[in-house]
Design a protein that fits this description.
Elements lengths: L1 H14 L3 H11 L4 H8 L3 H9 L7 H17 L3 H6 L8 E12 H7 L3 E4 L2 H4 L2 E9 H7 L14 E5 L6 H8 L6 E5 L7 H9 L2 E5 L3 H8 L4
Parallel strand pairs: 3-4, 4-5, 5-6
Antiparallel strand pairs: 1-3, 2-6
Helix pairs in contact: 1-2, 1-5, 2-4, 3-4, 10-11
Length: 226
């Protein structure tokens, strides 16, 4: 549960339109003052204040990770009151599997591992690294996600695999509608791919790939990427 909560918090902050306000929300949930959080982080309280007020640039993933882990570790060492309360919170059922890589993996390497066919995406983007992946049930993702925070884990620089795809239009419409985009979208054994999907992917600079491998095979192959 601690790992799930950490991922949820980080995801919400990273994809939030107001990351400072979201950071403050979580600090208050953990009942920590700015000074107390700053002490845990070993920084001046003004650093926390500036992030929350938006006076500093939006915190990057490394900074977000430090903030989140400091709060969760503190709670865990003091009886886990917040963690235990959150244990009854239902996580998004659309997520089948989610994992972070220990280092950046080139998109082209992932495509090779999953025997993927590129439907959209420039060579420049395909050479870029991603830092994790999420496997989601396409129908549940489209109908139940109010926000993609939990889906993005630590970072949106990741591949999102959509299973249960029929024609491939709806997932890309959902991706386009959200302000934060994954680096790569993969259709798992789609019945067909609507011509609109690659066009939307190009518009959003998202690499779009399809694969005929099933979910379990994909997860098994990606498990060994580092």
């Amino acid at each position: 549960m601690q790992e799930q909560l950490t991922r949820r918090m980080a995801g919400e902050i990273v994809v939030s339109e107001s990351p400072g306000e979201t950071l403050r929300k979580w600090r208050e949930i953990f009942q920590l003052s700015q000074k107390e959080l700053a002490t845990l982080l070993e920084v001046n309280p003004s650093v926390v204040c500036d992030f929350e007020k938006g006076r500093r640039a939006s915190p990057g993933i490394v900074t977000v990770r430090k903030f989140v882990e400091a709060m969760v570790d503190y709670d865990s060492s003091h009886g886990g009151k917040v963690i235990n309360t959150m244990a009854g919170t239902r996580t998004n059922e659309a997520i089948v599997d989610i994992r972070e890589f220990t280092s950046g993996i080139a998109i082209e390497t992932v495509i090779e591992k999953i025997e993927g066919e590129v439907l959209a995406g420039s060579k420049e983007i395909i050479e870029r690294p991603i830092y994790g992946y999420t496997m989601v049930d396409s129908l549940k993702a489209i109908t139940t996600f109010n926000a993609f925070g939990e889906m993005y884990g630590w970072s949106n620089e990741r591949a999102v695999f959509f299973s249960g795809v029929h024609y491939g239009r709806s997932p890309m419409i959902a991706v386009r509608a959200h302000p934060v985009k994954p680096r790569m979208a993969v259709y798992v054994k789609p019945k067909a791919v609507d011509p609109l999907a690659p066009k939307l992917a190009d518009m959003e600079k998202v690499v779009l790939v399809k694969t005929d491998l099933d979910e379990s095979t994909i997860v098994e192959r990606l498990r060994y990427l580092r």
